[in-house]
Amino acid sequence: MATIKKKALVIGAGTGGYPCAIRLAQLGVDTMIVEKAEPGGVCLNWGCIPSKALISATKLFHKAQHSESMGVSFKGAAVDMKQMQAWKSGIVKKLTGGVKGLIKGNGATYVKATASFVGPKSVRLKYADGKPDDIVEAEHIVIATGSLPIEIPGFKIDQKRIVDSTGALELDSVPKRMLCIGGGIIGLELGQTFQRVGTKLVVLEGLGRILNGVDEECAKVVAKQIKKDGGEIHTGARATGWEERDGAIVVKADVGGETKEFETDIVLVAVGRWPITAGLNIEKSGVKLGERGFIPVDNRKQTNVPGIYAVGDVVGQPMLAHKASHEGEVVAEVIAGKKTVDDARCIPNIVFTEPEIASVGMTAEEAKAAGHEVSIGKMPFAVSGRAMAIDETNGFVKVITDAKDARVLGIHIVGPEASDLISEGALAIEMGAFAEDISLTVHPHPTLGEALMEAAKHSIGEAVHLMNPRKKSAH
User: Among positive and negative, which fits the CA dihedral 359, 365, 367, 373?
Assistant: First the structure.
């Protein structure tokens, strides 16, 4: 057993860990990063990237089936899931290979092994090929181990009939029916992916509505689309178990106090994710775990043990790749001696449903609860020339401002390319912009981005392409 000394050790090469290692190396810190699976973590291998590849492909197919009004017909269009999976896998392979190359190219050491603590400054590396273990002694250790899907009683994941997000992303045929337990982001993204190519979708959500935590008005647009495409949504529903009957899966659920049965071919369990700390022997590090096993950190991502940091899903919500990457770079600068803190004003959130939802900042309800008097500007895509020209008019842009000074508090978009439009909103909140800053910025025409400008103008009563709220009389 060899002892290796490093200035910094990063555990996990996902979207929190690998940017941290790259930035550390750029800053001249002697760094090792250890990963037991594949570089890129869940996001690149089994999450963000592969899911968006399948979403893009199925959206293309779905649009081809509904383009007659544009004078375009795609007769004989078909879905080859095996080829789609091969295409998706090619993207993943290219990106994960790029991550490993960037880590090494910047001067960090990449190691494939399983890490576990033996003390607050030392970690054991266990290799899958039987090579003797190594001990790494590091002045700074970053925990970036990510998260995994939650299993629920009665629905053991076999990745064949009862699948989690990983299993759903590997399906090489289109199921006739899919039942999704959980009406959150992951479940609806994947459920609608297969719904677009002909799968009958049923969603069971335990709470009173789908996409809890997302602007409710935006969530309603997605719910309406799911139903329009032939799907069912049952809220206040708790799946209690399943049995096989005549070759089909029959799921039993308590729906509003009534027991109901749902026949399906695939069950997708998507009720959230747990932090990965099991197997780390984290107790030997002295790091204390918080609620539900997440690791509490301060604004420098420092745990309760000096020299040990944590970033990404393992520190809690929001569990987003871009949040993890930002935190990883913050930690790298902290370790390198810079006076850096995580002071991001906002973290944008995107839901790749149909249509897409993108949000940043506060909802109107959150703003009111925080003591703000709010003004809301709204621009529907139904009156956007660009949205009409691409035949995607479902949804709107909503801008929430403080009624007293018109400072932007939140922006919520549901509709075409919402994921690409939200970055302007994030910049506006990060820089402390006012509605006038957006409205006086000349936006090119015809574009979807104009809707954000028009919504900002609407919030201050200056929209020209839709009626403004009447101003209250002074008398």
Answer: positive
Per CATH, the homologous superfamily of domain 2-149+274-335 is: FAD/NAD(P)-binding domain (3.50.50.60)
Task: Name beta bridge partners: 31.
Answer: 8
Tell me, yes or no, if the pTM score tops 0.90. Answer: yes
Q: Under 8 Å CB-to-CB from 324, ≥6 apart: which residues?
A: 14, 15, 16, 144, 311, 312, 313
Q: For the chain, how big is the Rg over CA atoms in Å?
A: 24
At 130 the pLDDT is 87
pLDDT of residue 471: 62
Decide if 2-149+274-335 and 355-459 have a common fold. Answer: no
CATH architecture of the region 162-271: 3-Layer(bba) Sandwich (3.50)
User: Which residues, in sequence order, are bridge partners of residue 250?
Assistant: 243, 263
> Could you tell me the sign of the dihedral formed by the alpha carbons of 181, 182, 187, 192, in that order?
positive
149: β partners: 273
Write out the catalytic residue numbers: 445
Residue numbers of the chain with a pLDDT score lower than 50: 473-475
355-459 falls under which CATH superfamily?
Answer: FAD/NAD-linked reductase, C-terminal dimerisation domain (3.30.390.30)
Spatial contact of 165 and 272, defined as CB atoms under 8 Å apart: no
Rounded to the nearest 10 degrees, how much is the dihedral formed by the CA atoms of 96, 99, 105, 111? Answer: -80
How far is the C-alpha of 38 from the C-alpha of 44, rounded, in Å?
A: 9
CB 161 within 8 A of CB 291: no
For residue 25 the two structure tokens come to 């190396």
Domain boundaries defined on the chain: 2-149+274-335, 162-271, 355-459
Q: In what order do the strands lie in the sheet with 232-235?
A: 162-163, 266-269, 177-181, 200-205, 232-235
Q: Give pLDDT, residue 474.
A: 42
> For the chain, what's the residue count?
475
